Amino acid sequence: MRRLSDYIGNELLIFQKSIWKREFELRSGDELIALLYYPKFFGDRTELTIQNESYEFYRPKFFSRNVDIRKKDYQNPFAHFTTNFFGRKGVLELPRGIKLSMKFGLFRKQAEIFLGENDLLVSILSRFSVKERSEIIINKRSEIIDEHPWIIMLAFYLAQLRKRNSAAGS
């Protein structure tokens, strides 16, 4: 299996297979890289399968904006995402004290992943479509992205949550 840094310059797309299912695929051409799906239609908990491993993204408390990440069928989270008050940016805390910043945009830019504050690693851009469709741009090689490939799908998941929560509030 290729590392995600090897996809620099390739077109990576996240798209929804069916408008009736909350199931998203990360693809490079015909190659399936990751599959993100919601086991329950109205739930916030998601399951991700990437590189023969499965992860879960979930909110630890009902009204919490924070998200925890754990391996599927495990009890304790190994990573934690904390958002700021307005929900426009947040910090992902990984094992061994590594911290990544994520910033969320309003229109075309769904999410950006930074190492520190200014070192852009990955951008997720929206494409207009009836079904959800996003383009992934890997800006530079990173051992962190290769070691934790689920980070890209976490940013997409957080952008989805943000969009759903803002639609419910209006």
Write a concise synopsis of the structure shown.
With about 170 residues, this protein is mainly beta. Helices cover about 15% and strands about 40% of the residues. The protein has a single domain, classed as Beta Barrel (Porin), CATH 2.40.160.200.
Structure, described:
This protein is mainly beta and 170 residues long. 15% of the residues lie in helices and 42% in strands. It has one domain: Beta Barrel (Porin), CATH 2.40.160. The protein has helices at 143-147, 150-169; strands at residues 12-16, 23-28, 31-37, 46-50, 53-58, 67-71, 79-83, 89-93, 99-104, 109-115, 119-126, 133-138. It has a 12-stranded antiparallel beta barrel. β5 (53-58) and β6 (67-71) form a beta hairpin.
Distance between the termini: 43 Å
Outline the low-pLDDT stretches.
Answer: none
State the CATH class: Mainly Beta
CATH architecture designation: Beta Barrel
Structural class: mainly beta
Helix/strand order, N-terminal first: EEEEEEEEEEEEHH
Which range does the strand content fall in? 35-45%
- Major pleated sheet: 12 strands, antiparallel, barrel
Q: Radius of gyration in whole Å, from Cα?
A: 15 Å
Overall number of strands: 12
State the domain count: 1
Write the CATH homologous superfamily: LURP1-related
Mean pLDDT: 87
Shape: globular
Helical amount among residues, as a percent range?
A: 10-25%
Tally of helical runs: 2
> Biggest sheet, strands in spatial order?
1-2-3-4-5-6-7-8-9-10-11-12
CATH topology: Porin
Overview features:
170 residues, mainly beta, Porin, 12-stranded antiparallel beta barrel, globular
